[in-house]
Amino acid sequence: MNIHLSNVLKRARFMAKVDGPLFSLEARGKIGDAIVFFPWKGRHAVRRWMKPTNPNDIDQRLIRQKLFAIGKCVKAIKTATTAMPNGSALVVAFKAKMGATDIWNAFMVKSAMKGLAKDNTFTGLWSSIIATAVTANWRACAIALGLETIVSTSPGVATDIPPEIQLAMAAYAAYVAEISDKTTMYSTYPSAWGSNIVSLFATSFTAAY
Asked: Whole-prediction pTM value?
């Protein structure tokens, strides 16, 4: 019997669990505009790829801009080098808290978006950071890391996101993931951090202190 794959996909709207997808231990991403392979609750899964009905609606743009912002922070973090074979302190901290099958940068993004995907949580963080007495230090540390304002004219972005808020998003990820080094310095909400903790957090992006 000759059954064309496209006909099967048109009928199949469910998600299937698979073992050894594509004759490998793991598969990620999509094949053309047909099927998508991805990890789900510790298992390998595959489903039909579905194009968003409106990829530019305001809700999707807000989500994308948050991912874009936290992605800028991830890019600013120093990974393994000859001088730092395990990466910066922040890499080490996230690796220490993530699951065995996680990737540190994905774990960091997931930790941030766990709450910040909700607009009220995101705006709450934003409001609390600009209301602190150390807002200027948040901004200075963010700029020193090379973070720049994400402007609303950028593709897929709905509003401007200043450098200090981008850094605060990374701080929120650290708070949610409950990372710390030898103290509990990152166990409080970012707006409660003093200037010294903000500076130390920024240092953890590039140094193995």
From this structure: 0.73
